[in-house]
Specification:
7 helices, phosphoprotein, Stage 0 sporulation protein A homolog, about 200 residues, 5-stranded parallel β-sheet, RNA binding, Rossmann fold, Arc Repressor Mutant, subunit A, Sig_transdc_resp-reg_antiterm
Length: about 200
Amino acid sequence: MQQPKIFIASSDPSTRQNLKYMLVREGYLIAGEAPDGSQALRMIRTLQPSLIILDSELQGTNALEVARIIEEDGVAPIILLASSWHRNLLTRTRDFPIFAYLIKPVQESTLLPAVEAALANYQKMSRLQQEISKLKETLAARKIIERAKGILMDTMGLTEAEAYRRMQRQSMDRCVPMKSIAEAIIVAHELQGGSNKAKKTD
């Protein structure tokens, strides 16, 4: 299994060095590092790390803007570093993919569990999002199939079971999904309806 690649964004060289030392000693790979927000974003988009450690006091493009763009791009989970804990920080970052908050100077005893938890929870979240997307696609396909089935029942006098079996046979014979067969039926029906309207107008 490939080791996670971690990106570090902090304007403080000693913070970056300390984090790298602790992570490398535990076998993690350092994807890269940046001293400011703009450079961090460019490198993160290129390197596609597994995890981003982001200093809340980042210079240039601020940490919240970096986190917002990372969220939009769906790149990786974030561990946010702060000089002190305050609830306002939690409120301002609630909508971003931040999986842990660590107070500087970061200790190995808090860093390593946070890294493991962030990686594991992000993977679970990604799997759930994929499952939700599949369910949405399945529901959308089912609606299209039901509509096509209704068209066959109305235009050909078929029962619900007969209409479904007809689409199923077409799907198997043509080696295409039933959704594609259903979409073709709907398009043909709409074109036929448009043609009939044109004839009546003439």
